[in-house]
Amino acid sequence: MKHAELAKKLTNDTARTDWHNNSIWWQREKRDKAAFGIPDWELLRSTGSAIKDHVLDNLYDLLLEFEKNAILNGIKVHWAEDIVEHNEIVHSILAMHKVKKLVKSKSMLTEECGLNPYLEKYGIEVIDTDLGERIIQLRHEHPSHIVAPAIHLKREEISDTFHECWGTEKGNSDPQYLTEAARQSLRQDFMTADAALTGVNFAIAETGEYVVCTNEGNADMGAHLAPVQIACMGLEKIIAKREQMSVMLRLLARSSTGQPITAYSSHFKKPRKGQELHIVLVDNGRSTHIHKPKFRASLKCIRCGACMNTCPVYRRSGGHSYHVTVPGPIGAILAPNKDLKEYSDLPFASTLCGACSNVCPVKINIHEQLYDWRQEIGMAGHVETSKKIGIKAMNFVLSHPKVYDIGSKIGKTAISILPFAVNNSLNPWYKSREMPEFPKESFKDWYKKNR
Amino acid sequence: MGTNIYSTPLKVALFIPCYVDQLYPETGIATLQLLEKLGCEIHYQQNQTCCGQPMANSGFQHLTKDLDQQNQSYFEDFEYVICPSGSCTLHLKEHVFEGKTKVYELCEFLTDVLKMESLEAKFPFKVGLHQSCHGLRGLQLAKSSELVSDRFSKIEPLLNMVEGLVISYPAKIDECCGFGGTFCVSEEAVSAKMGQDKAAEFEAENVDVITSADMSCLMHIDGVLKRKKSKIKVMHIAEILNGAVL
């Protein structure tokens, strides 16, 4: 199913759409408050953007520098070309240590790779330790937002899930009570895990360390207790220097949740005594993506989610309507890199309003890329036939002034230029909106008579 | 009526978008009359049809080469091309003229070129201002709410020149109305909901009229309002500045 159809799962319930819209808009408002607290915010964005541009221009060298320094620090570095290699590498590390239980902090990359089901096939229990991720894991769902994976759920629904899975009091949806229940359950998991896996927000080339940002400290709980620690990152997560964190951390937390800084911004540099520390660097299409001049800037993304929070379409259609790991505007320009046909609907799930580009902390030209992807999709022929025919007819009329004028006289031009100018129940415009009234004469006719 | 800082009439070409020509001739007429009153010498190339955006935004810019060439040749001799639509202006600017011909959205022209400071018009109503996305974020007709910079607007001061007019903004001051060209039918459910939310925000402000520099957004909002049998009217900003009565 495509985005327009999937969106109806939410929009068919108006009250729920309003609730979803409002709770996500609240994230945008928190971002505004935090951003407006810094008079030089736009300078900070330009600086962040330049840092990430430099990364893309020097990715090869920076990756090698990172690898060299990480190895010196005692980290075992692995390279994965694709999902298969990534999953095999993680599994081989776990198998070597006979790991039965893995605690995992938030990582969109391992979502992208489908790591959880892969490891479960081998009998390894995987526990997502971010609260939102744990909730959706218990419900066998996918994240609907990259920062707040369970934002599509109401607390009453979470209460029901906890009751079913953990036997919490039925009907008690007090957030404090529910969070405490999750804390107690996760505490047991941290204590009994054989290995911990984290995502990576930034990997610093000059020092060979990496930074993980969380608000719950769950990445730290896992990493500090488990004898084996693995971090998985996409190639583009690299930055050149540690001092650049002062820019990136400010941008990330403020854009993401409206905080001045995340509660935990943990730097991991070397394994503890007796611990093994692995890092897996994953390509999975990124080295191809970086060579597409119009689209490479999307690799600058720091996964803050601000574009989702501001997007009027995302707020009303929900993350699951994008049928891909990273939803929202950024997802809609990342996904076509992977499969143009499969995700040909996503660049059209936008009005090109441009709010996404304006909030992006690293100034990715999201709405321009949405437009450019539409052209790629149009040229590749991945547009529905009915739309293609309509557009071609429209273009014919508009490219031939005489046809346009004759049509205008018999009332046909308006119909061919408006995709919705048919007054019947099959017309999607007319379902919720009245048709514009047709005037007695066109502007052109008026002009001929009056000037 | 009005002021014009130029002693000789400015020679300007009008670009009237296809849907304004076909559905909202009064917007085109008001634009023409207003510019005439301000002392401009108006040229209207009668073979013009459309900027090409409906095709291009649907992924078919590669089909509009003939249309783009027509537009380039019709307008290349003019120093100023004026269009009463932020969205069509942006498309012409970014994808058709590409810097070779200067195209201005009407309010942008009144503010930046004519530097208009006064106006003889009266409109004693509460007017909701819808800031269309392409005008706002594309042409930067005002500061958008996402950016941390000084507030400005090229539209608000023009409306403030109109006697009796009170400006009102919706709660989400510059959220998209959900029209989006073919988006309004291909993503019907989300588009309609966006339009309904926009209309509701204006209703909550008790406005008499909703105005904008883009008639396509207003067409969308109007479609929602009419379905609700609302009394709120929509009117392009050119009509208000040209002295329209309700």
Quick overview:
The complex is a heterodimer of chains A (451) and B (246). Chain A has 451 residues and is an alpha/beta fold. Chain A has helices at 3-11, 14-36, 41-57, 59-72, 83-96, 108-112, 115-121, 131-138, 155-166, 175-192, 218-225, 245-256, 286-289, 306-310, 312-317, 328-338, 355-359, 366-380, 385-399, 401-409, 413-417, 428-432, 443-450, and strands spanning 76-80, 101-104, 125-128, 195-198, 202-204, 209-214, 228-234, 238-239, 264-268, 276-282.
Distance between the ends of chain A: 53 Å
The count of β-strands of chain B is 8
Task: Report helical residue fraction of chain B.
Answer: 40-55%
Tell me the strand percentage band of chain B. Answer: 5-15%
For the biggest sheet of chain A, the summary is:
6 strands, parallel
CATH superfamily of the largest domain in chain A: NagB/RpiA/CoA transferase-like
Structure characterization notes:
- The complex is a heterodimer of chains A (451) and B (246).
- Helices cover 52% and strands 10% of the residues of chain A.
- Chain A has 23 helices and ten strands.
- A six-stranded parallel beta sheet of chain A has the order 1-10-7-4-2-3, sandwiched between helices. Chain A has a four-stranded mixed beta sheet with strand order 8-5-6-9.
- In chain A, helix 2 (14-36) packs antiparallel against helix 12 (245-256) and helix 19 (385-399) packs across helix 20.
- Chain A is globular and about 90 Å long.
- With 246 residues, chain B is of the alpha/beta class.
- Chain B starts with 10 loop residues before the first strand and ends in a 5-residue tail after the last helix.
- The interface between A and B is large, with 78 and 76 residues.
